[in-house]
Amino acid sequence: MTDTVNRPSLAELLDRMAGLEREALPAIAAAADPEELERLRIRYLGRTAGLLSGVSGSLGLLPAGDRPAAGAAFARATAAIRARLDERAAAVAATRRAAAPPLDLTMPGRAVWQGGRHPVTVVIDEVAAIFRELGFTIALGPEAESEWYNFTALNFPPDHPALDLHDTLYLESGALLRTHTSPVQVRTLQAYPPPVRVLVPGNAYRRDFFDASHAPMFVQIEGLAIDEGVSFVDLKATLTHFARRFFGAARTRFRPSFFPFTEPSAEMDVECRICGGAGCRTCKLTGWTEILGCGMVHPAVLRSAGVDAERYTGWAFGMGPARVAQQRYDIPDIRELYDSDVRVLAALAR
Amino acid sequence: MNASVHWLSAFVDTGLSPRALRELLTARVATVDAVERVRIDLAGIVVARVVEAARHPDSDHLWVTRVDAGGPELLDVVCGAPNVTAGARYPFAPVGTTMPNGLAIERRKIRGRLSNGMLCSARELGLGTDHEGIMPLSVDAPPGTPLLDAMPIGDTRLVVDVLPNRPDLLSHLGLARELAAATGRPLRDPSIPGAPAPSAVVPSVTWAAGSAPAAGVRVTVEDPGDCPAFLGAVVRGVRIGPSPEWLVGRLATVGVRSVNNVVDVTNYMLHGYGQPMHAYDLRRLAGGEVRVRRARAGESIRTLDGSDRRLDPSMIVIADAERAQGIAGVIGGRESEISADTTDLFLEAASFAPGRVRAARRALGISTDASYRFERLVPAVSPAETCQVALRLLVALAGGEVAPPVALVGRRPERPAPITLRSRRVAQVLGVPIPAGESATLLRTIGFEATPAQDTIAVVFPWWRTDARTEIDLVEEVARLRGYDSVPDELRPYRLGTVPDDPLVARSAALRELLVGRGFLEIRPMPFVGPGAGATVRVTNPLADTESYLRPDLLVSLARRAEFNLARLEGNLRLFEIGTAFRAVTGSERPHEETRVAALCMGARRPPHFTEPEPPSWDEWDAKALAHDVAGVARPGVRVELAPDGGNGTLWRVLAGEGEADGAGAREEIGRVVRVSLDAPPWAAPAFGVEITVAATPSAPVAPPGEQAFAAPIAPPARGAGPRYRAQPSQPPVRVDVTLLVPDDVSAGAIERRLRASGDTVLERVELVSEYRGVSIPAGHRSLTWRLTFRHGERSLREKEVEARRDKLLRALESELGVRHRTT
After folding, report:
1. Which domains does chain A have, with CATH numbers?
2. Mean pLDDT, residues B17-38 taken together
3. Any chain A CB within 8 A of the CB of B491?
4. Of B740, B790, B792, whose CA–CA distance to B763 is shortest?
5. Which residue among B27, B165, B543 places its CB closest to the CB of A216?
6. What is d(CA B769, CA B760) in angstroms, rounded to the nearest whole number?
7. Considering the entire predicted model, what is its pTM?
């Protein structure tokens, strides 16, 4: 007898569920605020004390044949109540929104601080991206160098006027602060066999007073390509391609120059973007903007690095991204790039 | 190098405008930095036509004219010149012009008649001495044309950037030689008006080693290494006076003031032929002797600029029998200077050791046009090659006679051996085949002797080319003479390189991305600091004491930049840098270098908003989390922990690697989090800094000089490093807050470690959510609340089960750490 009391029949259970549903739906429809809806959710669907959950505990007591029908009915009832709760919650929220004072949508959004890369980094990254397309990887080297890597290996004759262009800062230990990134040419060629195609961004130092156009430390980007059969044609082609991509320059020109570590040596100019080549104050009436120095790597440099200079040839270039950044962003004084005024940096980072 | 267009055209008639010369020189020879009109003071003068000219009614010598100066109306101009003629053209200074003498032209009344400008005489324009009348112009230029455009007036200066490898371009002859080659026009010797024939002036000059007489003066060179060639000539009976206008004009264009005819000749030789010369007053040379020797210790000289200079034995001097009369290659002496009453002179043309001249110039701190050229090497042949011209010019301008013999002390340089230029090499370097015949022809245009054989050319450098004499120099000459434009710029196939990306590149980029995303601005300051603060790498020749060391860390730079911003009243700062820190290494030439990342933050965490007018400031906890994140990116895949450190402004030391929390084990200190002390105004918020070492720069040279040390093959990235996918459970979590009464000697870290070490696999997360001290908390204690998240991977957790796990944890905490559960 106790058995029959504790074991509800399928009909009873279905009846109880239908009853609960009949009771719940009007209550939900009448609920006016989210708190009331939450109470109703707990009352009917709550995991431990919910009324429907209570019914579910009895499902297991049914004869096995009845359980699928009862389970389906239970699922339908909970789904119906849950759907009605969600529906009502949305309606209540909408009513609340309608009742609330309207948002002034012209008011500003909640901002976060904007960070940014340094303008020189931006230029380095863009230059690197273009050279990466052409198979270049990036090599780095130390900023404090030996005389040998900075000058001797790069074919600087001792005590030569060419050194006047490289006024050098020396360290107490006998090392020097590299005056260009070119020592990395030699370091790279010593460490890896040709073919070599690398780009070398890095700091370089000269004993220049800090003024509107000079700084004792500056960033240089060096490029180096060495292999059998690499010629002046490749130099011109690669750098012209770079100039077109980077500056959108229609025209470039290569004019003779001199660096101890390249021969033939050249400077590459691009058509002045201010005047389009007509000549203006920015380009000192030349119609051209000087961009980089370049040349065929001198055989003496290859020999310094232990590379067979008869078999291998190649080219190198060096450019100053600060100069490019100055032109791009109209920065009149190079010191701005070092001062780190956050207002300037933030404005340039946009 | 300043070049006069007139002077150049005396050597070669290119028929090119200054602008075209600039283009040509820049493309083929050396860059022309500027083209400057020398008579820019005449810029305001225009060509005007006198339409009518009538006598001034109230004057017997003035004219009233109507002038067409190109404007819409004719101008009334009063003129006092007797030669004014209607219909003729004259130079005209409109109202507002400033004349070469500084006079400003204004509208004014002259004897009652208004005058709108001035018709000019040659003298008023500095174009001659004629002031008898205004200057009639025989040009057809329309009225209003600038005079400088209408007339070949004045000269144009080309500022040529001659680089150290081409000292032969430091003269008009050198530039003209290149222009002749580039244009195909002949190079010629400028005529010297009134000069005697060469044979009449200079007796034949022969080389003599060590010593030779020059008309009674014994010329001796003590060390031929100091002075490979010294030519001395005595000229008697000169008359010192002014130089002719053409000479004054040419020198003026290149920026040299005329002194007198003799000195001007020496300067003419320097700028015209690249051979510095010096003339001594023969009377002042004691003992009939000229001696090229080292200065004696303690010797001094008063130089031409009037300074007394102390010499030392590293310097070469030109001395008479008694004392130094000039510093070789640098500057002459005051005592033997040419003066108005000089009648006999000793002319010096020499070649000095470049290194000696350079050292003397540096030691004395004077740079002259002569020292500039000697430093870049004046060839030993040059004195003999140029003395003819100099002596003829001298005799033509100052009279007198060259007294034989002329001394030439030194050894005749040997004819340089031919260099072989292989056509194969030319093609290899330039990328285009150039026939040997074409290369040879190009080289000959600028004075090389070139003898082509089949695929090679035997090339002898001309004496004036002192740059390195190797095959590659000849390849450059061929490319340059042919024009760099002639080389195509087609992209050709290439092989990929063997060099892997430096690992720092990707690491730095990731750090930038992180910090920029957090609202930080990158800076690139200079790494110089003053002494102190741990700096160990000293710069021996700094520009300032505040820059006499390289920084030991990056935060010092960030701090200075923060102060810079604070001084500009900007206190919300988020700065970062990826840069190098330096540390001296005993016994090593090169210091240890580390690439580090550092960030500094202070002020508002967010920009103000109407919902939050005063956003909170950055604090320790922001810095701690930032350090953790930065370290995680700087050292990917490595466990990072921040160890508290109360000392010296440091809040935490950043430790990397596996190991015990108490510091035992293989852990590396890779950085720190600090409270940055700044020179800051009172309103500034506290500043926090994070600095993490990313990697050390290798400090050993990779190979001995001239050798290769190919690196080991590139290792592929290790498997297992980096994060891996983990399926996330879909079972519901159960969250429980536990509030503990914690004695002050127990750290939150210890509790949290104990919680995590419980081995409870269902405890998913442990978060500290509150700290409280106050009324209900006993002294020496605080209340800390952790939120524990439990989740079972496969099933829902029952409440009882969760409670049991929580209670077990609480018991462990109580027994091991003396921490009691606090129930409210």
Report:
1. 2-99 (no CATH), 119-349 (3.30.930.10)
2. 92
3. yes
4. B790
5. B543
6. 20
7. 0.83
